[in-house]
Amino acid sequence: MIFAIFFLVGTYAVPDVNEAHYIEKAAHFWNPDYVHGDFFLDSQDAHAVFYWTFGWLTLLFPMETVIWIGRCLTWFGMAAGWWRMTRPVFKRWGFGVLSALLFLFLNQKCSCAGEWVVGGVEAQGFAYVFVFFGLGELFRNRWNRALVFFGIGAMFHVLVGGWCIAALGIAWLVLNIHERTLKKNGSPADLEKCFLPSLRELLPGLTAAVLFTLPALVPALQLNADVPAETARNATYLYVYERLPHHLLLSHMAEHNSVKLGLFALLILVWGFLCARPRTSHGDMTFRTFICGALVIAMIGWGINLFIEIAPDKAASLLRYYWFRLADVMLPLGVSLLFIRYADGLCQNTRLSGQNTISGRRLSGMVLLGWPFSRPA
Description:
By secondary structure, the protein is mainly α. The protein has one domain (2-370). Helix content is 72%, strand content 0%. Helix 2 (19-30) crosses helix 3 (48-54).
């Protein structure tokens, strides 16, 4: 069912906007004579792992077939990851499917920076497959396994997986301060709430995450290695302020996409309400703090945005790293999971769980039939 939902949402005419670039690049990676001399195809490869693991299919099949194979692989992987992630959250069948529907709806309608998850085949789609599996390990409070999955995600797309690792680091710092306070001032009952692994215990996961990230991080750092400083600075300026301000500049979003920015702010309030509900496990606490870590990263990006008039070049050199990307995905994801669990709990408490199941199925059908699917930005 989850795969079918992702299939319906992500099915667009071939090739989609970014697929034309990614698949052509992948074909050129394996066959340098393909469109030989093209300026774009001959440029540095920012997603070499994706091209290496997937691009060889261009030697065997036509481009359109390769795209459909990639789409189906991505959607199937995401569906498996979503199922794995939601198993500790929902006790009854069907709510994982409903949460996927709600997530996709919120991601399309409330993402202020236009970050999408389910769509065409490209590196970030494969990265989110492993991010979903990593979040499933967070819900089980398995930090090392989560770090490994996030590292693999970073190997495919260094920003997607890398920001997940950063958000998990913020979560660890926050929880560490919280547990130190409990151990110092709390009661014996409070000490039972302490569950955070030490840095020494996290060393295997951290090591694996770094090793998995390197194949993507090193090429990314070398993109401007042979480029004159002035050229690189001008390119970054154009990239941030002219080409992709709708993804990178909060000030641009506020001016040109104020409705979605307002919906995103409303979603933060809903998230705050859901976070005030009692936690159900240590993993639940870890997951909530991870989402808050993603919001902290977005707040840092907003802070950098304040300096675009004072130091535009310096600000651009930092803003090009998509500070709002993770929050754009994780906030709708967190709200979709906790809201449905909260609503289910209300129905159970009022002895209407049977009616709730029927309503959930009806809602799923209505969304599938009536939701105006739109292309990702």
